[in-house]
Design a protein that fits this description.
Order of helices and strands of chain B: EHHEHHEHHEHEHHEHHEHEH
Number of strands of chain A: 10
Helix content of chain A: 40-55%
Oligomer: heterodimer
Structural class of chain B: alpha/beta
Number of helices of chain A: 23
Strand content of chain A: 5-15%
Strand order of the largest sheet of chain B: 2-1-3-4
Shape of chain B: globular
Number of helices of chain B: 13
Number of strands of chain B: 8
Largest interface: A-B, 60 and 59 residues
């Protein structure tokens, strides 16, 4: 991902994605499975009631965020964690690197974390001579391929198992196989040794609990447990909106997040980590450091898009998004793809860079229906498009057409004249334009309905 | 009963036979149809692109043309939702127009809503032919919540066989301004929709929105497909 202010080359990215039939097939297969499982798994549940409750809790967090941040910091420190507050990506990267350097860390194992993608932590640490290993299977694959995640939950969703088999045989020197069981075993063998020899583990957090100072991590592979218990040092990086008021709020999300994400009733591992290992504890890191990051959240919280901060990163919105399903995550050229990703990209990276990805929605509303915490994604997307036009990011020709529309729309005579012009110039427009909208809109009829009615 | 008919700019400009089908349908139930001649467009096309100034102009014009107290009937889920859901949003800072928008929204019906809830057309015993499938358009389904009404009507057709379209409510890729800005994705989605339609072996596909139907027809035709694409008003009016 580029961190420059140059606009995302979305149209070109799209064309590249659409040509990649393997990619399209892989994404379709995976998202179809997620969606089918979610639909079937939630059909007999009071989802509406659950969503409403979860949405209320998330709003409660946002409405009182400074208070919960303060409470979390003191709770976490009370149970023995050390908390660092970071205003932006640079501060967070420095904090993490500082902790690792203080402890003489040479090798880090990581559990899946989108926020460390957001702040580009891995290259920063690698530049400082620290070896960084992703241990979530999907992240591991993406890291081996020197790519970025294309989905917030299934980072390697864009790859077929055949491609993964080839990657493993090239990079790890193992015999080619496209059997997921075999491939998983290969990764497990490699990673097992890394867990045992790593000096520190880095994780994100799905939630952080204000009243107990706990971190909550959902994983399916058990790597989260290894990362947080085997190395003696655990560093967690999370953004402030991940907070929940109380541990009693957790059940609402334990039941909702996996069901919305993969359709599972429960993630295979739900770890609640409350401070470092204490005398007599069976497992746990000796030291727990928590980097609590703002990176634009307090600013978003003040404005009209604040509800995007309710998001719990389940990926349901991208799994049902027709555009995401067609082009995959890389085309968005941002940490966060899909409907929630468009909104976050615009807010975190600015309109100047993000405006092209505002096109990546048909505003069909499937995301709103799927969102477990009722983020009004379509409303936010409409508003962002509106702002993009206000700020002058609309295509010039389209803008001129819309101005003409605006001039004619209050006058039936001008409107009818416009219809006639459109009919006359349609053949020419067809000839001049490449294959696009003009080719797919039929020629206006000679006897319009208004003529027939007069 | 008297209604005001908003034909929509797509029907007006490209598909006048759909407008005529609506007239025949409504008259069959003794409805007196007024066609306000000053009508133009509801403002949805600029709205979907973020052109609030232009869509507000269209909305103001619509509100001034469609005054009175009669129900307004619209053969499009997208346009009906524009009026019912987005007009109040457009005028949230203008108390006078907001009040007018709210009142107008209350008496606005998408065609199948009106046919089922007011006219009970699904109990009228219309005739039909062939194998018919149905695309559930996005704003109709998710913004207006009109899910059952078109199915009730289509299932009531005597002599026609209704066949469910897999993923019927998945977007066809039209998306208003989306089809112009991202034609490649739009085509990819329309082709997926067309493939689903072909998989049903239906001879007719219908829906409540000409935007989508236009997009779907294009995708079907480019594969030389012979599935007929008709607005639900046409399908119903043929069975009168």
């Amino acid at each position: 991902m580029s961190s420059s202010r140059e606009a995302i080359t979305f149209r070109a990215n799209v064309q590249k994605s659409l040509r990649d039939l393997m990619l399209r097939e892989a994404i379709k297969r995976a998202t179809d499975t997620f969606v089918t499982k979610r639909t079937e798994g939630t059909a007999s549940l009071p989802m509406e009631e659950w969503r409403e409750k979860a949405s209320i809790i998330r709003m409660q967090v946002l409405d009182n965020l400074p208070q919960y941040v303060e409470q979390f910091c003191s709770s976490a420190e009370r149970v023995g964690a050390k908390v660092y507050q970071a205003a932006d990506a640079e501060a967070a990267r420095r904090a993490v690197a500082g902790i690792l350097e203080d402890h003489g860390v040479k090798k880090v194992v990581k559990a899946k974390s989108m926020v460390t993608e957001e702040i580009h932590l891995n290259p920063y640490l690698q530049e400082r001579g620290i070896e960084v290993l992703e241990t979530d299977l999907g992240e591991y694959i993406v890291q081996l391929a020197a790519e970025t995640p294309s989905h917030i939950l299934a980072p390697a969703i864009h790859k077929t198992r055949e491609q993964i088999g080839k990657l493993f045989s090239e990079k790890l020197g193992v015999e080619y196989s496209d059997d997921p069981t075999v491939l998983t075993r290969v990764a497990r063998n490699v990673l097992r040794n890394e867990f045992l020899t790593a000096d520190a583990g880095i994780t994100g957090a799905n939630f952080a609990v204000a009243d107990t100072g706990s971190l909550v991590i959902f994983t399916n592979e058990g790597n989260g447990r290894m990362v947080t218990t085997v190395p003696r040092l655990h560093v967690a990086v999370l953004t402030i909106e991940k907070l929940l008021p109380s541990v009693t709020d957790l059940p609402s999300f334990v039941r909702l997040l996996p069901r919305s994400a993969t359709g599972q009733m429960l993630s295979s591992y739900v770890s609640v980590i409350t401070g470092p290992r204490k005398p007599g504890d069976f497992t746990g890191a000796d030291e727990l450091h928590i980097v609590l990051l703002d990176n634009g959240r307090r600013e978003i919280l003040k404005g009209e898009y604040r509800e995007i901060l309710k998001c719990i990163r389940c990926s349901a919105c991208m799994n049902v998004c027709p555009v995401y399903r067609a082009i995959g995550g890389h085309a968005y050229d941002s940490t966060y793809p899909g409907p929630m990703g468009i909104v976050l990209t615009a807010l975190l990276e600015g309109m100047e860079r993000a405006y092209p990805v505002l096109d990546a929605t048909t505003l069909c509303g499937a995301c709103v229906e799927a969102c477990p915490v009722k983020v009004p994604l379509v409303k936010l997307l409409y508003r962002l498009r509106e702002v993009s036009v206000e700020q002058g990011f609309a295509p010039p020709l389209e803008k001129r057409g819309m101005s003409a529309f605006g001039a004619a729309v209050s006058s039936p005579a001008m409107f009818a004249f416009g219809q006639t012009l459109a009919r006359i110039f349609w053949p020419l427009a067809q000839k001049l334009s490449g294959y696009g909208a003009v080719h797919r809109i039929p020629r206006p009829v000679a006897r319009t309905f208004r003529r027939r009615m007069s | 009963m008297r209604i005001q008919f908003f034909s929509t700019c797509l029907v007006d400009t490209f598909f006048p036979e759909t407008g005529e089908a609506v007239l025949r349908l409504l008259r069959r139930f003794g409805v007196e149809v007024a066609y306000p001649k000053e009508q133009t467009c509801c403002g949805k096309p600029p709205h979907s692109g973020g052109y609030t100034y232009e869509s507000r102009k269209a909305a103001e014009h619509f509100l001034s043309v469609f005054d009175g107290a009669d129900p307004i009937v619209i053969p499009s889920g997208s346009c009906a939702s524009m009026i019912k859901n987005h007009y109040p949003e457009l005028f949230k800072d203008n108390p006078r127009l907001l009040e007018q928008a709210r009142k107008t929204a209350e008496r606005t019906y998408e065609l199948t809503q009106f046919l089922v809830h007011v006219l009970k057309a699904h109990e009228a015993g219309f005739k039909g032919t062939g194998r018919v499938t149905y695309h559930a358009s996005c704003q109709l389904t998710r913004e207006l919540g009109v899910k059952e009404e078109p199915l009730l009507l289509l299932n009531s057709l005597k002599g026609a066989e209704f066949v469910h379209l897999p993923h019927a409510d998945r977007c066809c890729g039209f998306g208003g301004i989306f089809m112009a800005r991202q034609p490649e994705i739009s085509v990819a989605l329309a082709e997926e929709k067309a493939a689903m339609i072909r998989s049903t072996n239906a001879d007719t596909v219908t829906g409540c929105d000409h935007g989508c139907l236009m997009n779907i027809r294009d995708a079907l035709q480019r594969r030389g497909n012979t599935v007929a694409v008709k607005h639900i008003a046409q399908v119903l009016a043929e069975g009168l």
